[in-house]
Amino acid sequence: MKVLIATQKPFAAAAVRGITEILEAAGHQPVLLEKYAAQDDLVAAVADADALIVRSDKVTPEVIAAAPRLKIVVRAGAGFDNVDLPAASARGIVVMNTPGQNSNAVAELAIAMMIFMARTQFTPATGSEVAGKTIGIQAFGNVGRLVGAKAKALGMKVKAIDPFLQKEQIEAGGAEPASSLEELYATSDYLSIHIPATPQTIGSIGYDLISSMPKGATLVNTARKEVIDEAGLEKALEARPDLKYVTDVMPDNYAALQEKFGLRVFATPKKMGAQTAEANLNAGLAAARQIVDYFATGNTRFQVNR
Hints:
Blueprint: E1 2-7, H1 13-25, E2 29-34, H2 39-45, E3 51-54, H3 61-65, E4 72-75, H4 85-90, E5 94-97, H5 103-118, E6 134-138, H6 142-153, E7 157-161, H7 167-172, E8 176-177, H8 181-186, E9 190-193, H9 207-211, E10 218-221, H10 230-239, E11 244-247, H11 254-261, E12 265-267, H12 277-297
Parallel strand pairs: 1-2, 1-3, 3-4, 4-5, 6-7, 6-9, 7-8, 9-10, 10-11, 11-12
């Protein structure tokens, strides 16, 4: 089978070697498409692919329509909103992610960003310590649990909410369950977001939630840009000069936010959550192994569409 590895933001060299070795050992033909200039390049390259590995690359209906042999798409990472699931499902194409492979990298970044803002972006201004503060975690999955464990090691109180978990499961993960999303925001000095972008969550975090946070609070977003109501965020920062926002997904209105709020806001130049050598390698190898297993046994354990 021909497996196209299409990455505008390439895997590390070690990951590419590992992916290639796994696929070739199973009798598959890996083909690289790296740093491509336009979406048309992906459309052309996928024409004879049986399988596709991507990172944040857009697998649109146009891409799927151009790939008559395509049977499986694996997103090397946890989020999969860059893949058009209805279009894939309509064609009977299996879509998978690689949950857990990037989790520690994202969790470490969330903690680092929190401290970066607590210490006033490492400027000479007086900052604050995170020990003794409360961190709220919105979604207590692989990343959320790791953030909680690291925060607890720093002496923080950890609270969490997750619509898919029971109170006992959150407690077993080392966090105090919040009674509601509103209560979580209203009682968290730091609020770390780990929800996916879905029709239910897009634009769900806006003025009301953000402005309800305690004095001096910081909102930390290593999830998706789309979950933030950016107009509501700007309004909350205007109304509350004590609030801060730090994100790994640059807002559309970032220039305006910087101009208005200075050191109270920060966005990474590009999404950095999975940008570690370890996460890069782990996610890439997992994607290759899942493709091999799918073709060998039909295993669809990590399928995200039906």
